[in-house]
Design a protein that fits this description.
With 71 residues, the chain is mostly helical. 49% of the residues lie in helices and 0% in strands.
């Protein structure tokens, strides 16, 4: 579980890996090219349907990501 800004190289690498995973999953769910997804934008801006958002949260939970802290 990562909270706050990364303080070590390993934490930066983990955050970058998580961001890449989120982009890939969002692209899979929406059909949008992963290259055009901005990780700073809310998922809702990419047309993620409620059922797909629940599926994505379920996948993140399975990976051990605390989705309540993704804000």
């Amino acid at each position: 579980q990562i909270v706050g800004p990364p303080s070590t190289t390993a934490e930066w690498r983990e955050k970058a890996t998580l961001a890449a995973c989120l982009v890939t999953k969002l692209a899979d769910y929406t059909g949008i090219d992963a290259q055009s997804i901005d990780v700073r934008e809310p998922f809702a801006g990419y047309g993620l349907e409620s059922a797909d958002a629940i599926g994505l949260v379920g996948e993140l939970d399975a990976l051990g990501v605390a989705t309540t802290e993704l804000g």
